[in-house]
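dude i think i finally got it to work??
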Amino acid sequence: MDLLDIPAEDLAATTLAAQRIARAVLSELGADGVNLLNCSGPVAWQTVFHFHLHVIPRYRDKSKDRLALPFEPGLPADVDAIAERARALAAAL
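look at this
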């Protein structure tokens, strides 16, 4: 399933959840902004084949914000940093 297949009510619910998470990213992680990213189809970097949105914290301080497009999905990630942020966001939500 991807953006083209998701029922409208599920899309609305997912988008509202992303908005809640984005607010938590701003308040709890001190981000200056967020990007929402949906990858729909393998050519568009979809690697998990169900509909989801990525909520990406963005920072003015580029030492905290390494995102530059194009990026390559599937590269090794800092699992500890991800888990730390996940705990902070879960507590805030």
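The two ends are 26 Å apart (CA to CA).
im so relieved honestly
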